[in-house]
Design a protein that fits this description.
mainly alpha; about 80% helix
């Protein structure tokens, strides 16, 4: 069935997917530079339409992707290896976890670690803020946004890519996973359209994260030195510096730069988390972790389908938070999925899915319990004023640093946090240059250096334009718009994967 699929995929100087994707992205960047206000106005209208008309679609789709991934892991297909039968995993389990986690969550965990739970505590999805119930909801919904659902999306696309690439020896492109559905047409306009959609979603999904990273690095530096302003110009400088760093890392390849930085990320993240755990309200945080874990499991089905059609305020909250997150994860999925697939050769489907779903979810619960729990504790019992710092100038990025300022050795902790954000920034960006390079070179496992450099600068430019045209709101808007067409790609990908796995067992 797949024996002739790899033929005819020799890399040309520039593939059609590269040319089309680059052209679309370039037009968007020029649009943002020339008329940023117009870009913001048009994209905001599109975002509002998608959120209000298709919020239910994002919710149902994300839950379907999660359930599908769990089903595949524990089905008769679970023992199939992502590679040849005698192949062993290419990377150690620790390095594997470190790389997939750094690529998949990175900057967002640090940016929202304190900010999101504190925001939900003051403006909860239901009921009054600044209550014990609001605090419980704040933690529960934060974990909902960062737990199983995003990793279910990543697991689906990564599993499909790894199975077809390493088991069936097809190109490592998104379109190649559709061979069981459309056959040789994946090499024509249909396949090129699928890959172009994936690249578009990746560029702007990653640009959102890079923008968040630049904003928070700026906030941390300003917190350390009041003479450093929080503005777009400073963020442009940060993006420029980090672009040079992540391009250099990407050129060294996965086995060196990305792997080393990912391992370093996990070490620094754990150190920072342990610092908060043991210098903050330790017993409170451990109790919060335990109760949040249980609440998340108890309320997971209800939260997964919550749309609140009878309450406009609650509906607006869902659109601003849950729908944004689901769109962000979907926009990130071609990038994270391709990267996870690339580093997962030699693992069984069951091992792969359990690892991708369970480990990052448990770590996220612990992370937000420590960071978010510390922020909520200071607000509830000590009146520190983290929320006031966030509201002043709409500076969400200062939440983490305002929290660290209340702990011993706050300056050291702040520096450590800035280093962590920077390394997450670098690993996310250099992984993305690698992935976009693969998708625009017919799935080459080691894309040409020039292609990776070019996409690195394109991502940086996209992030800069989004910040220029509307800051955090523009970043969120870009994710929601970029994700919408890719939802349909993922839905059909499930069908293609089942057909491919069924054929595998029948051979």
């Amino acid at each position: 069935m797949f024996c002739t699929f790899g033929r005819g995929y020799a890399l040309k100087k520039f593939t059609p997917v590269f040319i089309i994707s680059f052209a679309i992205t370039f037009i968007f960047i020029v649009w943002g530079v020339v008329t940023p206000d117009n870009l913001e106005a048009v994209t905001s209208k599109i975002q509002h339409f998608l959120q209000t008309r298709f919020g239910w679609f994002y919710l149902i789709s994300a839950t379907v992707f999660l359930l599908f991934s769990i089903y595949i892991a524990f089905s008769k297909y679970g023992n199939i290896k992502l590679g040849k039968e005698d192949e062993e995993p290419e990377y150690s389990t620790i390095s594997w976890f470190a790389m997939l986690f750094s690529a998949g969550m990175g900057i967002g965990l640090v940016f929202w670690g304190v900010a999101e739970p504190v925001s939900h505590y003051f403006v909860p999805p239901t009921g009054d803020g600044e209550t014990a119930e609001a605090a419980s909801q704040a933690m529960r919904f934060t974990i909902f946004h960062w737990g199983l659902h995003p990793w279910g999306i990543y697991a689906l696309i990564a599993l499909a890519l790894a199975f077809f690439k390493f088991r069936k020896n097809v190109p490592g492109t998104i379109s190649a996973t559709f061979y069981p559905l459309i056959g040789e047409r994946v090499k024509g306009p249909i396949g090129q359209t699928i890959d172009t959609i994936a690249v578009f979603a990746t560029v702007f999904g990653v640009a959102t994260s890079l923008g968040l990273g630049a904003i928070q690095i700026n906030g941390g530096l300003s917190f350390l030195n009041e003479n450093i302003p929080i503005n777009t110009f400073t963020q442009f400088i940060i993006i420029g510096i980090v672009t040079v760093l992540f391009t250099g890392s990407a050129l060294s390849g996965i086995g060196r730069g990305i792997k080393w930085l990912s391992n370093a990320n996990v070490v620094v993240a754990i150190l920072l988390m342990l610092f908060l755990l043991f210098t903050g309200p330790t017993t409170f945080l451990l109790n919060l972790f335990t109760s949040t874990f249980g609440n998340y499991i108890e309320y997971l089905p209800q939260m997964s389908f919550r749309t609140s059609p009878f309450n406009e305020d609650n509906e607006a909250w869902i659109q601003s938070w849950t729908i944004f997150y689901w769109a962000w994860w979907i926009a990130w999925s071609p990038f994270v999925g391709t990267f996870i697939a690339r580093i997962s050769r030699g693992r069984t489907i069951r091992e792969f899915v359990i690892g991708v779903l369970a480990v990052p979810t448990v770590f996220s619960i612990l992370w937000f319990s420590v960071f978010g729990g510390t922020g909520i504790y200071f607000e509830m019992f000590e009146g520190v004023g983290i929320w006031e710092a966030m509201e002043e100038g709409a500076n969400t990025e200062v939440a983490l640093f305002a929290t660290l300022a209340e702990l011993p050795f706050s300056t050291v902790a702040t520096v450590l946090a800035i280093v962590l954000i920077s390394t997450f920034f670098i690993t996310s960006a250099d992984s993305a240059t690698f992935v976009i390079g693969m998708q625009t070179t017919n799935g080459m496992l080691n894309p040409p250096i020039k292609i990776k450099i070019l996409w690195g600068f394109v991502q940086a430019a996209a992030a800069a334009v989004l910040l220029w045209s509307g800051g955090l709101n523009a970043l969120q808007t870009a994710s929601i718009i970029a994700a919408f067409p890719f939802v349909f790609v993922l839905l059909f990908m499930m069908v293609a994967l089942v057909k491919g796995l069924r054929a595998e067992l029948e051979e």
